[in-house]
Write a structure and sequence with these properties.
The protein is of the alpha/beta class and about 425 residues long. The chain has helices at about 20-25, 35-50, 70-75, 85-95, 110-120, 130-145, 180-190, 210-230, 255-265, 280-285, 315-320, 410-415, and strands spanning about 5, 10-15, 15, 30-35, 55-60, 80-85, 100-105, 125, 145-155, 175, 195-200, 235-240, 275, 290-300, 305-310, 325-330, 335-340, 350-360, 365-370, 390-395, 400-405. Belongs to the Orn/Lys/Arg decarboxylase class-II family. LysA subfamily.
Length: about 425
């Protein structure tokens, strides 16, 4: 569910007209609904409540949307954070997320990032290789502190999702093979400065079937038992995220958070550990849209070309993943037809939809990309020297720019000309 609905013939974000935002801020622009964020947090937490020992740690995957207003909403809701870089860690802390509720994931943590996490006393590092464990041990020992750690294990389970967002197969770069975990934990236990407390798993993103997750969790449960038999005090199991959201209304709905929670309780019964979760897309995807304006409509051989002022540098997912986003007219006229929807970037890959049956639009009309709150603005770039789009947060009848539009001059001002080329 989201809070983007037609009111008096025009799409509103909660009680604010998208037309009013476009007129004030320009396009393209990302618009987020605070009410939707809060509802999704509440629904997910209710779904996993009672699973595991004590209250689960729900750590928002910052990579999905690191905007400060989004993270502040997460902090006010009592959420933790799953981070994969020093920058994401600093953003989470700046938003007020408690350091003890932060999990640091990722295969390429540097010494500097490790030291940053240790200096703030974060809740857990998810180790993804034995050399990483050795590096973290050295950093923690030099600082005179202890790092709370888990190994992320790779269960060799096919999540059944897009190859570029699958993370749990043996050929993926993430984690250590689950069948080598016993030996890896034994070696890590001998390293100074590390406190082994957990096991982590994450097999992919945009999952539309619970069976691969349940299979992976079954392997993790067996590992927890085996590690305890070896004398390790395992108190936390991080089950990752990945539950899918409905992008294409023509496809069956993904499993609900309630379905997911029931599966988790069934799969983890008897583990006697606290559970952690890392939802990102599930929380923020439907809470955001990308608002764009039609530059012109160009005649095509089979369908017209609808050329927008938003481009692949603003919303990369269709180009990168062949991802679907529902595209709607902000003021629909009741007529639909097939069209190709593209941006102005000089790449054939700057295509949002081909032969899409959609609202008929004309030059200067506003269109909106639905379900764009996750992996939208955070993956944007400045290709073709296009400035980054602004972001807006809506709460009821209030709205505010939470990241201003980047001035084009900033692209030039950030560069330096070497002395030998200066006039």
């Amino acid at each position: 569910m989201d809070h983007f609905n037609l009111s008096n013939g025009s799409i509103h974000a909660e009680s604010v007209s998208l037309e009013a935002i476009a007129q004030a801020v320009g396009t393209p622009v990302y618009v987020y609904s605070q009410a939707t964020l809060e509802r999704h947090v509440r629904v997910f937490r209710e779904a996993v409540s009672g699973a595991g020992k004590g209250e689960p740690l729900v750590a928002f995957a910052v990579k999905a949307n690191p905007n400060g207003a989004v993270l502040r909403t997460m902090a006010r809701a009592g959420m933790g954070a799953d981070v994969v870089s020093g920058g994401e860690l600093m953003r989470a802390l700046a938003a007020g997320i408690l350091p003890e509720n932060i999990i640091f994931s990722g295969v390429g943590k540097t010494r500097e990032e490790m030291a940053l996490g240790l200096s703030h006393g974060i809740g857990q590092f998810n180790l993804e290789s034995e050399p990483e464990a050795e590096m973290l041990s050295a950093v923690a020992s030099a600082m005179g502190v202890e790092a709370k750690v888990a190994y992320r294990v790779n269960p060799d389970v096919d999540a059944g999702t897009h190859a570029k967002i699958s993370t749990g197969k043996s050929e993926n770069k993430f984690g250590i093979p689950i069948d080598t975990a016993i030996d890896a934990y034994a070696r890590a236990a001998a390293l100074p400065g590390l406190k082994l407390q957990g096991v982590a798993v994450h097999i992919g993103s945009q999952l539309t079937d619970l069976a691969p997750l349940e299979t992976a969790f079954g392997k993790v449960g067996a590992l927890v038992s085996a590690l305890r038999a070896e004398g390790h005090d395992i108190t936390l199991a991080d089950l990752g995220g990945g539950l899918g959201v409905p992008y294409d209304p023509a496809l069956p709905l993904p499993p609900s958070p309630t379905d997911y929670g029931a599966m988790v309780r069934r799969a983890t019964a008897g583990w006697d550990v606290r559970l952690a979760f890392e939802p990102g897309r599930l929380i923020v995807a439907n809470a955001g849209v990308l608002l764009s304006r039609v530059i012109r409509v160009k005649e095509g051989v089979s369908q017209p070309w609808v050329i927008l002022d938003a481009a692949m540098n603003d919303l990369l997912r269709p180009s990168l993943y062949d991802a679907w986003h529902d595209i709607r007219a902000v003021k629909p006229k009741g007529e639909k037809a097939a069209a190709n929807v593209v941006g102005p970037v000089c790449e054939s890959g700057d295509t949002f939809a081909t032969a899409r049956h959609m609202d008929v639009v004309a030059a200067d009309d506003l269109v909106v990309f639905m379900t764009a709150g996750a992996y939208g603005a955070t993956m944007a770039g400045t290709y073709n020297s296009r400035a980054l789009a602004p972001e807006v947060m809506v709460s009821g009848d209030q709205w505010a720019v939470v990241r201003p539009r980047q001035p084009l001059s900033a692209l030039i001002d950030a560069e330096r000309v070497p002395d030998w080329l200066a006039d």
